[in-house]
């Protein structure tokens, strides 16, 4: 039974928490004085026995007892000194050190008892060693009960040799004492194990209580930290609405000092302190209490908003607890409220100009239409698009463009009445809704005033900016009563105004709707043509006026519709540019032109026109490289023609593309020269190899001296700059003679050939090699 209990104790020891095991080991070394007393006492008894018995073996045993005792005392001192830096492994080591020392000391004491009883017949000595062993065993049971393996080992090693010596002694008295000692061993082992269980239970309970107390303290600290680091203010009130708990944020929101707030103060006292702190925008205590009472009912979880100082807004909410008290939460919602106001404004107003946005425009337009129906008046919708605004953004940058839009909004506000509505739809598109318009002429006068107001130059950050405006006007109820319908018709009128050159206004007319429908149908057909590559290239030659040789052939796009027949480029090219289809069409034309030119003699170039819209395509240069690579046409035989409209919309993308063309070795030609207002500046900035004088200067060259003077000046300028000058639109030999005499280098026109299919122009090129086209 005891053996099983001892083994169970061994297993339990292995499962003890480290801190308890360390405490038990600490108890072994704790009474150093008892170790010293035990070592000295046992040594003295041993020495006395050895001297009286005059036995060398007993003397040697006594000396061993003295040595082991001193070693144990020294180990206890070392343990105490190094205790603070011990870990679990060190604890186990010191336990082993104590265990070995204790067993050695006990074994030597037991050996002393056995030798004394076996080697002597002196009853006094027998009594001395027996009582010493019994006393030591009893002390061990109490002292080392926390470590029963050590205690039982010591008890056994000390008393078992004594019991054996008594049992083998010849007389029956000694034998009886031996039996008593065995019973003593059994009893002391049982007592030791019981004491050990009591110690373990006591340590475990103490440990649990300490851990529980530490946990409570940690939770309290965490609660305190959490409470004072909340973004919300919090306070707790008892059943009588007296303050019990609050956090730092609560004091911060109410701008209260910690000394002003105390446990047990009433809400009235708290409000009075808050009013003294400058809160509640001049209200008195009674007024504040009334507002709080109305907003925070005892039986509800409501929320009330208060303004503390006219700027900050605080939201208060109250939750009643089961014990009758309550928790009040304070939250500073100033920024949230401002953000909500900004969101609300952004939902209804244009952020840049402050004008009504599309959403508010639709809402107010519906209301104005309803009012017009009741009063039997009409309203006018002016859809405004700024002319040349994109060039401002491209040349001066978007910040200047934004300031220009703000300046436009201010001018519109100066022109229209306060009862009218101004809105911005985005980009450079504005809308003015003119209320109570009794006559169509009134709408016309307002549109004219808007155009004139926006024609005046703007001064933005030191820049003089000249723009204009095109306006489309739709009238309600004449043109419709639905907002979407009216905007659509105003947009049709705007399209007509811009097609007329811009800088003016147009009223919606029924014919515009028909034109828009036809244009839409044409756009759909154009998309199908792009998908099916239903286009054809014709080529018109350019001739050297000195030799009569064909130097270049210009590629011209043609579209033959299955039902519409031949659709002029002047009709479908603008639609392609507006819809962006021109990018795909231009890529196809470039590829086909290079493929055809690759079959021509080496001295003949091909010229391909580029639209301004194509320069917005970042892959334009890549398309050129691809067309040259696939056709095998050398880059110097490709000529790209651009108009002044491309340069008027000069942007970083345009400049970059032109630089890439120059790097590739592709030459540039400026078409329709003389029709823009800054052509000379373009010649200085860009690497043009050729300029083409517009045919409007050639048409009357034989009868207008001014026209010839312009041609002569341009030709002289081109020659001095090393640029080839081409006269467009030559139809007669006399025109050819004049432009050649004035210094033009090349000519193009019906005189040398109309635009012709690829096969025909190829034959014409080969024929011109044998017989020049120029007739003297």
UniProtKB/TrEMBL annotation:
Residues 377-510 form the GGDEF domain. Signal peptide: none annotated. Keywords: Membrane, Transmembrane, Transmembrane helix. The chain crosses the membrane at residues 28-51, 57-79, 100-117, 149-170, 176-199. Gene3D superfamilies: 3.30.70.270, EAL domain, PAS domain. InterPro entries: Biofilm_reg_signaling (IPR052155), EAL_dom (IPR001633), EAL_sf (IPR035919), GGDEF_dom (IPR000160), Nucleotide_cyclase (IPR029787), PAS-like_dom_sf (IPR035965), Rev_trsase/Diguanyl_cyclase (IPR043128). The keyword Glycosyltransferase does not apply. Pfam families: EAL, GGDEF, PAS_7. Residues 519-769 form the EAL domain. One of its GO terms (molecular function) is catalytic activity. This is Diguanylate cyclase/phosphodiesterase.
